[in-house]
C-alpha cells in the first residue's frame, strides 16, 4: 500500500468508527462489515466484494498499533496544511494550497522542485519506513497476504473435551498452476532491473536520502514477463480448501484461534496472512459453564431436602453420587471436584450442582393429612425480625 493510498483513503470512515475508537470497537465494526459483505454471502455482487476488500484493507492498518499511529501521523500532517508552497504573484495571500497530485508527481512539469525533483512520496516513505540520511532502504519483497476470519459453531461437549474438525473455506489461495510466483509454467520471475530485487529505489538529495516503492515491480522485487494464464500474474486464485483445525479442550464461546500462515497468500509468492477462527459454542440442554466449572441444577423433593438423600447426577463422561445432608435448603450448591473443564495445566474445574426444592402443586388426601400432621409437630419458622417491622406500621 502506497503513501498516497494512506492519504486518500479514510479507513475510519470505511469501518464507520470514530478516529478515537478503541481497538475493540474497530474489531467489532470490521467483523460486522466482513459478515455483511463477504463474497460467500453475496455471490456475484462485485460491489459487496469491493466493500469486503476495503474493510479488510482498513482493518489491516487500524488493527496494528504501529501502522495506525503512522497512518494518523501522516494524515494529521497533511490535513494541518503543513504542505503548502509559496506562490508569489499568484494573487492569493499566504500562498496557494499544495495540490495533492504534485506530492506524487515525482517533480514533473508543474510539480514542486524544492526537493530536487523527488516526489513527496519519497519523503513519506523515508519518514515512515525508518530511513535516515544516507541510510539504506530495507528490501521490501512481495507483500504479505491479508488475514482471513471465519466462524465455527461447536457442540458444548466438543468444546469442553476438545475436537478436530474439517473446516471448508472459499477464499484466496495459492495458484496451483504457478505455485504462487505469478509466472507462466516453464518460466520464472526475474530480478527487477530497476531496484535489483530490493523492492525500493533510493535517491540521494544532498544530505537526505529518499526512498519509495519501485515503480517497475511495484515493490515486489521481481518482474513477471510471461504471466500465469490462471492467476494472471497475481500468484493467487479464489478456491475452496479444507483444513483440519484442532480446537483445544476447554475452548470457550467467543474465543479466537489463530492459524499462522493459513490466510490469503501474499502477492507473487509473498508470505501468507493468518486465519482467525471465531468459536461459537452451542448451549447444552443440561450443563452450563462458569470459567472452568460446569454447572447443573437438580430438583429434589421436600422430603429429600429435610431427611437427606444420595443423588446420582450426570457428568460429561459418566455419573457421580452426591450426598444431600438432612435439612438442606433450596439453592444449596454441592461440589463434585475434578468433574469440570480440564485446564491447560492438566487440572480440572469442578461440577457445581444447585439443589432446587420442588413444591408440589397438588397433594392427595393422604399426603395432605401427613403434611398437616408434620406441620403440627414442627416448630414455626422464626420471623421476629419481620414481625417488629409489621408492628411499627400497625
TrEMBL record:
Q: Which residues bind Zn(2+) 2?
A: 192, 195, 214, 217
UniProt cofactor(s): Zn(2+)
First and last residues of each zinc finger (CR-type): 162-240
Paste the cofactor note. Binds 2 Zn(2+) ions per monomer.
Predominant subcellular localization, coarse grouping: cytoplasm
Subcellular localization: Cytoplasm
Q: Which SMART domains match?
A: DnaJ (SM00271)
Annotated GO biological processes are: DNA replication; protein refolding; response to heat
Q: SUPFAM superfamilies under this entry?
A: Chaperone J-domain, DnaJ/Hsp40 cysteine-rich domain, HSP40/DnaJ peptide-binding domain
Q: Which GO terms describe its cellular component?
A: cytoplasm
Domain CR-type as annotated: residue spans: 162-240
Question: Known InterPro entries for this protein?
Answer: DnaJ, DnaJ_C, DnaJ_domain, DnaJ_domain_CS, HSP40/DnaJ_pept-bd, HSP_DnaJ_Cys-rich_dom, HSP_DnaJ_Cys-rich_dom_sf, J_dom_sf
* Keyword Metal-binding attached: yes
- Keyword Zinc-finger belongs to the record: yes
Q: Give the UniProt keywords, A-Z.
A: Chaperone, Cytoplasm, DNA replication, Metal-binding, Repeat, Stress response, Zinc, Zinc-finger
The GO molecular function terms of this record are: ATP binding; heat shock protein binding; unfolded protein binding; zinc ion binding
Which parts of the sequence belong to the J domain?
10-75
Record family assignment: Belongs to the DnaJ family.
The UniProt entry, under HAMAP family, shows: DnaJ (MF_01152)
Q: How does it assemble?
A: Homodimer.
The function of this protein is:
Participates actively in the response to hyperosmotic and heat shock by preventing the aggregation of stress-denatured proteins and by disaggregating proteins, also in an autonomous, DnaK-independent fashion. Unfolded proteins bind initially to DnaJ; upon interaction with the DnaJ-bound protein, DnaK hydrolyzes its bound ATP, resulting in the formation of a stable complex. GrpE releases ADP from DnaK; ATP binding to DnaK triggers the release of the substrate protein, thus completing the reaction cycle.
Database matches in NCBIfam families: DnaJ_bact, PRK10767.1
Name-wise, this protein is: Chaperone protein DnaJ
Q: Which organism is it from?
A: Micromonospora acroterricola
Its lineage opens with: Bacteria, Bacillati, Actinomycetota, Actinomycetes, Micromonosporales
Protein encoded by which gene: dnaJ
Amino acid at each position: 500500500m502506497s503513501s498516497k493510498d494512506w492519504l486518500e483513503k479514510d479507513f475510519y470512515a470505511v469501518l464507520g468508527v470514530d478516529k478515537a475508537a478503541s481497538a475493540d470497537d474497530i474489531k467489532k465494526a470490521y467483523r460486522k462489515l466482513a459478515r455483511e459483505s463477504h463474497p460467500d454471502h453475496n455471490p456475484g455482487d462485485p460491489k459487496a466484494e469491493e466493500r469486503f476488500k476495503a474493510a479488510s484493507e482498513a482493518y489491516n492498518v487500524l488493527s496494528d498499533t504501529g501502522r495506525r499511529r503512522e497512518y494518523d501521523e501522516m494524515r494529521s500532517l497533511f490535513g494541518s496544511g503543513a504542505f503548502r508552497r509559496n506562490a508569489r504573484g499568484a494573487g492569493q495571500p499566504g500562498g496557494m494550497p499544495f495540490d495533492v497530485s504534485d506530492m506524487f508527481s515525482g517533480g514533473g512539469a508543474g510539480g514542486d522542485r524544492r526537493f530536487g525533483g523527488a516526489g513527496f512520496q519519497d519523503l513519506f516513505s523515508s519518514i515512515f519506513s525508518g530511513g535516515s540520511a544516507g541510510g539504506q532502504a530495507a528490501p521490501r519483497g512481495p507483500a504479505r497476504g491479508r488475514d482471513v476470519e471465519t466462524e465455527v459453531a461447536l457442540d458444548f461437549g466438543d468444546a469442553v473435551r476438545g475436537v478436530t474438525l474439517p473446516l471448508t473455506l472459499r477464499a484466496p489461495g495459492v495458484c496451483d498452476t504457478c505455485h504462487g510466483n505469478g509466472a507462466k509454467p516453464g518460466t520464472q520471475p526475474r530480478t527487477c532491473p530497476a531496484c535489483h530485487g530490493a523492492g525500493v529505489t533510493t535517491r540521494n538529495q544532498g544530505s537526505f536520502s529518499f526512498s519509495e516503492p519501485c515503480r517497475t515491480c511495484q515493490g515486489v522485487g521481481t518482474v513477471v514477463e510471461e504471466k500465469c494464464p490462471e492467476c494472471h500474474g497475481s500468484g493467487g486464485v479464489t478456491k475452496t480448501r479444507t483444513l483440519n483445525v484442532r480446537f483445544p479442550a476447554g475452548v470457550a464461546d467467543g474465543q479466537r484461534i489463530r492459524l499462522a500462515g493459513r490466510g490469503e497468500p501474499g502477492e507473487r509468492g509473498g508470505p501468507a496472512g493468518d486465519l482467525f477462527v471465531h468459536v461459537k459454542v452451542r448451549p447444552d440442554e443440561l450443563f452450563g459453564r462458569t470459567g472452568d466449572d460446569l454447572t447443573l441444577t437438580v430438583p429434589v423433593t421436600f422430603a429429600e431436602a429435610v431427611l437427606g438423600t444420595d443423588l446420582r447426577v450426570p457428568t460429561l463422561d459418566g455419573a457421580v453420587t452426591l450426598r444431600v445432608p438432612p435439612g438442606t435448603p433450596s439453592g444449596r450448591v454441592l461440589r463434585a471436584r475434578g468433574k469440570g473443564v480440564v485446564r491447560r495445566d492438566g487440572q480440572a474445574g469442578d461440577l457445581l450442582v444447585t439443589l432446587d426444592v420442588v413444591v408440589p402443586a397438588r397433594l392427595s388426601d393422604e399426603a395432605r393429612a401427613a403434611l398437616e400432621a408434620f406441620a403440627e409437630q414442627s416448630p414455626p419458622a422464626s420471623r421476629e425480625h419481620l414481625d417488629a417491622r409489621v408492628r411499627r406500621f400497625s
